[in-house]
């Protein structure tokens, strides 16, 4: 089936939830996706941070093949050898104590919200004064299910589905005074993405993060770190919170964890874990044998090949090249991010849109988020040569576009950090 | 980033002096209360420490002190009572102390070695129970699976005692806290640090500490924490006794200021295949003189034995002046005597037990 036929069929059969780009991919290798005509596209988005080891990685292929011959599903009513092994690996690298496996980021975040509410209920039963409210951040994005969307800031994600989960208040990101003013005994959890992705690659400030930790400790509220996009190596450490030396009570993982196989995980401390008792939460597919086997293969590969160091080095190189680019192009107003989670802010939403589209025409995949930010979430196996190809292309594109958009007033919101 | 210390329930903040003022009355205060606890325990099973109420635990402790002080008072308390012991695992202390206990109370023990034949394999547990209850007054089981014990208890009309399962080792924990009471006057308010695998022994110790109002701190490697439902239960109990349960990964923090430091083997029975993998993980949790130096100067060292010398504990600590491991071993017998007396309806309050002080420990 060709692209046109697929487009026609989808338009009659699927809910219209995505604006798709008109490309049909049929394969991939290394950091490249291959389309129906055999063209390779340099992928600097990796399926929004999912394909961490690129495409057709032999370790993932082997894990899938091996596990698929043995066992795909057992349900959580029985044991298999993958869950405890993977949980041990994740607790070792995270500093947290217990794991709940699920299928996606939003499902992991739902579990985190439920656990925080339930934990607060336990504290209330013990006579502690603590409420049910969440403090979430402006420009946050936590997912699409009803709880996740309630803690997601952008109105277009929430308003059509109102009423969403109540008792959520938004705090100006990195505004310590606003955080302190809105925090009270009513709060059961503070929700933070240590490095906001959808919000435009904005890192939390150390002071803000530390204040959130301190406030939670003062009442027994939980600090929830959403690492669905930034976790599992993306920023050059296993978790972005490890750059700050602050341990949250709960963190969530998903995108890269099983290298393209759907999987999510919520990790928490022993204390937070007391919030759930058997039967209070669950999942049919979460922590299945296939996803666990592939996730273990991803972790094995990353540890064996010292991928974190590679991410740090390649990320620094990438960021330095983007900073050089910014010196040549007035339209770039900021370069942000850590490791291989980077973004450049453009002074015009339309210019950013055109730049992303022209990169695609040059067979380089990036995306635009928060209207004005070009976002880079490449596979961890990205090399310097790929960075140079991408930055050189962007350099040429911005040169061409600059004339057309000269004098365009800054659009969208500037850095809100 | 340091590993986060998780304190559940009223705090003893790490390393801080803990108030030893009791927040609940745990000792048996009257003949009536003792008598009621004895009556309730008669004919019951002991599968888990959590089967006992705080008052019942206190009554067992009190009786253990009385039995040890005046064994002759109980010389014929269980005359002609028959106790059968089925053990799927090897045993020195448990077997000998149970046999010695029933014999010196006037009863008789029959030991059945099941190390080659798991319970329920040759015939069903139900059929076994229906036979045994015709001949025996009490059944003592040491099993791999805790379910074997609860199933036998459910099927049997006579009491069943858990003499170790994969989930708990209640007899050991009762004897251990009896030892602490001997040493410190009361377990209430004591800082009890358990370092190592969050295993069956650890589970029973947590629950017993909670029932007696002690502050229990468990330091275990990642992946070797106690089970969550046991933690839940221990916290719930400690809320009524003024005790607390704290989990952490740092052994030094755990023992800092401790009155008692407890460890067990790194590889419990049944997990021998993991011994090589576990050795390096548990190395930082070895109780040695350096680690003990962080505890109170008069802290005791405890171990349920058998010990793997110079693995989880050094010779210097195990054989050193702070070690009470052989007191613990001796007290298995006295504590189990008290248990047998309670479950078989032979308990009685004596003048010595009634007058026993249950005051919190006073530091000199």
TrEMBL record, chain A:
Pathway: Amino-acid biosynthesis; L-arginine biosynthesis; N(2)-acetyl-L-ornithine from L-glutamate: step 4/4. Keywords: Amino-acid biosynthesis, Aminotransferase, Arginine biosynthesis, Cytoplasm, Pyridoxal phosphate, Transferase. It is an enzyme of class 2 (transferase). The keyword Ligase does not apply. GO terms for biological process: L-arginine biosynthetic process. It comes from the Bacteria. It is found in: Cytoplasm. One of its GO terms (cellular component) is cytoplasm. Pfam families: Aminotran_3. Its cofactor is pyridoxal 5'-phosphate. Its EC number is 2.6.1.11. Pyridoxal 5'-phosphate binds at residues 105-106, 141, 226-229, 284. CDD domains: OAT_like (cd00610). Belongs to the class-III pyridoxal-phosphate-dependent aminotransferase family. ArgD subfamily. May also have succinyldiaminopimelate aminotransferase activity, thus carrying out the corresponding step in lysine biosynthesis. NCBIfam families: argD, PRK01278.1. This is Acetylornithine aminotransferase.
UniProtKB/TrEMBL annotation, chain B:
Keywords: Cytoplasm, Transferase. InterPro entries: Asp/Orn_carbamoyltranf_P-bd, Asp/Orn_carbamoylTrfase, Asp/Orn_carbamoylTrfase_sf, Asp_carbamoyltransf_Asp/Orn-bd, Orn/put_carbamltrans, OTCase_ArgI. The keyword Amino-acid biosynthesis does not apply. Its EC number is 2.1.3.3. Pathway: Amino-acid biosynthesis; L-arginine biosynthesis; L-arginine from L-ornithine and carbamoyl phosphate: step 1/3. Pfam families: OTCace (PF00185), OTCace_N (PF02729). It is an enzyme of class 2 (transferase). Residues 188-342 form the Aspartate/ornithine carbamoyltransferase Asp/Orn-binding domain. GO terms for biological process: citrulline biosynthetic process; L-arginine biosynthetic process via ornithine. Carbamoyl phosphate binds at residues 142, 169-172, 304-305, 332. Signal peptide: none annotated. It catalyses: carbamoyl phosphate + L-ornithine = L-citrulline + phosphate + H(+). Its main location: cytoplasm. L-ornithine binds at residues 200, 264, 268-269. Residues 44-182 form the Aspartate/ornithine carbamoyltransferase carbamoyl-P binding domain. One of its GO terms (cellular component) is cytoplasm. One of its GO terms (molecular function) is ornithine carbamoyltransferase activity. Belongs to the aspartate/ornithine carbamoyltransferase superfamily. OTCase family. This is Ornithine carbamoyltransferase. It comes from Edaphobacter dinghuensis. The gene is arcB.
């Amino acid at each position: 089936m060709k692209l046109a036929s697929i487009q026609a069929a989808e338009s009659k059969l699927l809910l219209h939830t995505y604006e798709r780009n008109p490309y049909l991919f049929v394969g991939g290798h290394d950091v490249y996706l291959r389309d129906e005509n055999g063209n390779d596209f340099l992928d600097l988005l990796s399926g929004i941070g999912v394909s961490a080891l690129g495409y057709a990685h032999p370790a993932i292929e082997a894990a899938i093949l091996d596990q698929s011959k043995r066992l795909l599903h057992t349900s959580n009513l029985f044991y298999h050898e993958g869950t405890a092994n993977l949980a041990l690996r994740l607790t070792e690298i995270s500093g947290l104590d217990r794991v709940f496996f699920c299928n996606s980021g939003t499902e992991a975040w739902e579990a985190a919200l439920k656990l925080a509410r339930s934990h607060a209920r336990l504290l209330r039963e013990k006579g502690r004064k603590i409420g049910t409210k969440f403090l979430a951040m402006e420009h946050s994005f936590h997912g699409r299910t009803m709880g996740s969307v309630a803690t997601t800031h952008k109105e277009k994600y929430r308003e059509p589905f109102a009423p969403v989960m109540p008792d959520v208040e938004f705090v100006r990101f990195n505004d310590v005074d606003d955080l302190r003013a809105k925090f009270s005994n009513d709060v059961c959890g503070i929700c933070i993405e240590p490095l906001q992705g959808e919000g435009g690659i904005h890192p939390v400030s150390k002071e803000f993060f530390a204040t959130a930790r301190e406030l939670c400790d003062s009442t027994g509220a939980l600090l929830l770190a959403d690492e669905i996009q930034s976790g599992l190596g993306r920023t050059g450490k296993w978790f972005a919170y490890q750059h700050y030396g602050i341990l949250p009570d709960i963190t969530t993982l998903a995108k890269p964890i099983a290298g393209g196989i759907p999987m999510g995980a919520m990790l928490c401390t022993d204390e937070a874990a007391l919030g759930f008792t058997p039967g209070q939460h669950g999942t049919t597919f979460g922590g299945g044998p296939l996803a666990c086997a592939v996730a273990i293969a991803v972790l094995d590969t990353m540890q064996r090949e010292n991928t974190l160091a590679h991410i740090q080095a390649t990320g620094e190189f990438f960021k330095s090249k983007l900073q050089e680019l910014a010196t040549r192009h007035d339209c770039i107003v900021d370069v942000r991010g850590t490791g291989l989670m980077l973004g450049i802010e453009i002074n015009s939403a339309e210019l950013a849109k055109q730049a992303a589209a022209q990169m695609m025409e040059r067979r380089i995949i990036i995306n635009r988020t928060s209207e004005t930010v070009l976002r880079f979430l490449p596979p961890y196996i990205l090399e310097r040569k790929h960075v140079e190809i991408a930055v050189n292309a962007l350099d040429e594109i911005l040169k061409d576009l600059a004339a057309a958009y000269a004098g365009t007033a800054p659009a969208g919101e500037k850095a809100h950090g | 980033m340091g590993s986060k210390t998780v304190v559940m329930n009223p705090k003893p903040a790490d390393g801080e002096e803990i108030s030893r003022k009791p927040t609940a009355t745990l000792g048996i205060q009257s003949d009536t209360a003792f008598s009621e606890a004895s009556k309730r325990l008669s004919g019951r099973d002991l599968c888990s420490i959590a089967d006992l109420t705080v008052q019942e635990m206190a009554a067992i402790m009190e009786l253990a002190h009385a039995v040890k002080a005046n064994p002759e008072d109980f010389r014929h308390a269980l005359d002609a009572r028959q106790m059968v012991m089925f053990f799927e695992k090897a045993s020195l202390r448990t077997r000998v102390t149970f046999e010695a206990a029933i014999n010196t109370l006037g009863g008789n023990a029959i030991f059945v070695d099941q190390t080659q034949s798991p319970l329920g394999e040759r015939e069903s547990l139900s059929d076994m129970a229906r036979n045994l209850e015709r001949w025996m007054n009490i059944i003592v089981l040491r099993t791999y699976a805790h379910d074997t014990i609860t199933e036998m208890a459910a099927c049997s009309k006579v009491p069943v005692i858990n003499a170790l399962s994969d989930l708990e080792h209640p007899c050991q924990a009762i004897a251990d806290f009896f030892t602490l009471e001997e040493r410190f006057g009361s377990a209430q308010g004591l800082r009890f640090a358990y370092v190592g695998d969050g295993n069956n022994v650890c589970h029973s110790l947590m629950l017993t500490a909670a029932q007696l109002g002690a502050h229990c701190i468990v330091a275990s490697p990642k992946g070797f924490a106690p089970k969550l439902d046991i933690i839940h239960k221990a916290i719930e109990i400690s809320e009524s006794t003024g005790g607390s349960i704290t989990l952490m990964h740092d052994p030094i923090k755990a023992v800092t200021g401790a009155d008692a430091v407890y460890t067990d083997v790194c590889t419990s029975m049944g997990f021998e295949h993991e011994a090589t993998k576990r050795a390096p993980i548990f190395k930082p949790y070895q109780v040695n003189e350096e680690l003990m130096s962080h505890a109170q100067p008069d802290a005791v060292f405890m171990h349920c034995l058998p010990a793997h010398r110079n693995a989880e504990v050094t010779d210097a600590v195990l054989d050193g002046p702070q070690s009470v491991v052989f007191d613990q071993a001796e007290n298995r017998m006295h504590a189990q005597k008290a248990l047998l007396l309670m479950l078989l309806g032979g308990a009685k309050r004596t003048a010595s037990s009634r007058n026993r002080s249950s005051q919190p420990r006073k530091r000199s």
